[in-house]
Amino acid sequence: MQIVPISADGYNLLHEGTLALSDLESNGIRIDVDYCEKQKERLGRLVKKNMRWLESDDIVKKWKKKYSQQFTFASNDQLSDILFNECGFEPVKYTDKGSPAVDEEALKALGIDLVYKLLRIRKLQKAKDTYIQNLITETQDGYLHPSFNLNTARTYRSCVAKGTEILLASRKFKKEIPIEDVKIGEHVYCYDDACNPVTRKVIWAGKTGHRKVVRIHWRSSERTGHLDVTPEHLVRKTSGDYERADLLLSKDLRSENDNEYTPKHVVLAGRCFGNFRTGIREITDIEYLDETVDVYDLEVEDCHNFIANEICVHNSSSNPNFQNIPTRDPEIGKIVRNAIRARDGHCIIEIDYGGIEVKGAHWYHADPVMAKYLLDPESDMHGDMAQMIFKLDSFDKKVDGEKTLRKGSKNGFVFPQFYGDYYKNNAVSLWNWAGLTGKTVGKNKGVQIKDGVFISENLKNHGIKNYKQFENHLKAVEEDFWVRRFKVNNNWKKRQINWYHKHGYVSCLSGFICQGVMRDNAVTNYPIQSVSFHCLLWALIHVNKKLKRKKMKAKLIGQIHDSIIADVPAEEVDDFIDICKRIMCHKLKNHWDFITTPLEIEIDKTPVGGTWFEKETILEYRN
Quick one: what percent of the chain has pLDDT higher than 90? Predict the structure, then answer.
């Protein structure tokens, strides 16, 4: 899939956006490296402490007995087998192929102590080896200079040699094909952040040059093989972290999850023999080849890795990726955001475009029900859905439990539905948000709503006594959501998909077209996400220009999701906020006449010299 400018306005947006983002990269983000080093040590101790608990668990003992030397906590295939086949637990959710799902939401819903400990270990390991370690590695003289790219094709990228076989999920018979034959839109096997095997779409593929490579020799219990990549290409370890190809033999690659029998130099792997099989490979030698060869690369949506000659490797997205700073997990978010600190005498200010993608969607479909929610400040779409989903007689967001259910409805149903998800996946997420576990609604379980009533008792009073009944109820909620509540939006989606099937592209309001191979969800989502980002980019460009024209000391240092991040001297805070209000809420709306809804921003500020985690909301502004 490609997003291509078709107007002068679209081209200028990309051109000026590239220049503005280069200023952000140059300005840099202040990192507290000493804090990072201490957190790395602390997280390591926490991982070891939790590992000791796991070693004494009866399920783990059964796991080790069955798998012996092949045992590893990183294998979800082994975990699935032990939980559902050996121990007899009933899966909450199944994959599209009918296998028990072992993603984080599905595992949490089981309500098993072992699972919670294992997920916590994986989370802590990722915080230590990915987030904190990357901040330490990439920080120079106290500042991080992340890359903000508007394109996916890059020069001087790490690459894979021509002829390397890539493991595809989108082909029925021949699963392994040379990297040079992989097409945009095909799906590859890869691993998610928790090292679960998944499939994801290739969003860029192509030749990247002619370079020298190293040959990674590996072996398994059945055979040997090799992989040719550029020396700096990243290979995935069993912990989920990555290591340069030319350094694989220079250190112990084992994670806290591996046992004493695991060889020191093992990496994450996968192959297809009927179905996809996870595994590990031992690295035996690194050979430096004298000749230069044609090299290629892929960009894989979301997970950013793929299987090459049975070895899991990273695609060459820019590092470090400021977009990946965690926000959803409060514990890890706090750890990582406390590492980002304002310059002396400065504050970090984050300006978030409130609900920009919901507004962007309305600019296309003009659904009158959505218009009411957007134009009436007293209305609450997420509160209404929480009331319907959890059978609440009324909704009061001042009650902590009901506030949680509202947030769950927003992130576990409304937004996933808008992006093309369906009720069965939503049910697992909402079950977790409500604080419920297992297959039945227990007594006095989950969050508490008004008058101290547990959500379990409220659901039972309304005839929902188990997970299956809740799932069936959510199916009816989904039908009402699209057939009655947002039927105009639903009809627009159908027209959009039909247009794409006939013409091979869809248009963006901001002067671009989306073309190439796309799933139906992408056909409706990409134009919305594109115009929303283009609004943020336009605002960023003009805020940056204004700061430079006024010769202010305030610096834009980041762009993440729907927000602009700035490092602002204390004495310039008021002027900076006024500039953002005028540009982001007024001038942008005057620039593009397709913006038919109010624009609003939320402004958070840290104390002077404070960390990003310490930010608090100081202003909500709506034009």
Answer: 60
